[in-house]
Amino acid sequence: MRDALQQGIYMVINPFVRLLIRLGFTPNAVTTIGFLGNVAAAIVIVWAGYEASRPGAAGIDYGMVTLAGALIIGFSLFDMLDGQVARLGGMASTFGAMYDSVLDRYCELFTLGGIAYYLICIDRFAGAVIAFVALIGSIMVSYVRARAEGLDIECKIGFMQRPERVVVTSLATLATGICGQAGVDSFDPNLILIIAMAVIAVFANLTAFARIAHCRRELQKK
């Protein structure tokens, strides 16, 4: 199911990928653009939190939260584009794969760290702790896979992989901003973001532990 969805997305983005190749973009350049966009998203949501925490502030600027969500969605697409540029352009390299993986981790550190800071600034301390645990799980999912591959073990199991984490984070941030701008008063719009962080915190860490167990079983077979 996941592979079929991915192939469908590739069919949609491939014309744009070919355009990037004709324009001279390299996979590493596409990766860097995606990284810078995610850093921009983190800066926007950090600024939203900082402005809301200042004495005499009128409240949370949910327009900035919406912008942060839109930036995460838009620039996270480059995470798929760089791989396709490498494949269709015949520019795949070992360094490119490593560079992509490293910047993916930086993207998550910036975005989830920015969300945690935002939640602290608006006095949602418990939510900030949850976001921090989500960040831990996100990094550990990737770290366990990297260590497994270093031991010659394929380790791609688990539900909350990077594409799922990006979708949950971006849509929740966007929904929080939109609900806040709409003046929803039946609930705190920031609950959407906190619940999303809780989903990632639980399932990312479960995925990391599932991968550890998988590696243990595989190593016992050798």
Describe the protein in words.
By secondary structure, this protein is an all-alpha fold. Helix 2 runs antiparallel to helix 4 and helix 7 packs antiparallel against helix 8. The protein is globular, with a radius of gyration of 19 Å.
Topology:
Elements lengths: L1 H21 L4 H27 L8 H15 L1 H11 L5 H28 L3 H26 L11 H20 L8 H32 L1
Helix pairs in contact: 1-4, 2-3, 2-4, 2-5, 3-7, 4-5, 5-6, 6-8, 7-8
Q: Roughly what percent helix? A: over 70%
Mean pLDDT: 89
**Element string (H = helix, E = strand):** HHHHHHHH
Number of helices: 8
Q: Please count the beta strands (DSSP E, at least 2 residues each).
A: 0
Shape, per Cα inertia axes: globular
Task: Give the termini separation.
Answer: 31 Å
Question: pLDDT below 50 for ≥5 consecutive residues: which ranges?
Answer: none
How much strand?
Answer: under 5%
What assembly state would you assign to the polypeptide chains in this entry? single chain
CA radius of gyration: 19 Å
> Which structural category fits the helices and strands?
mainly alpha
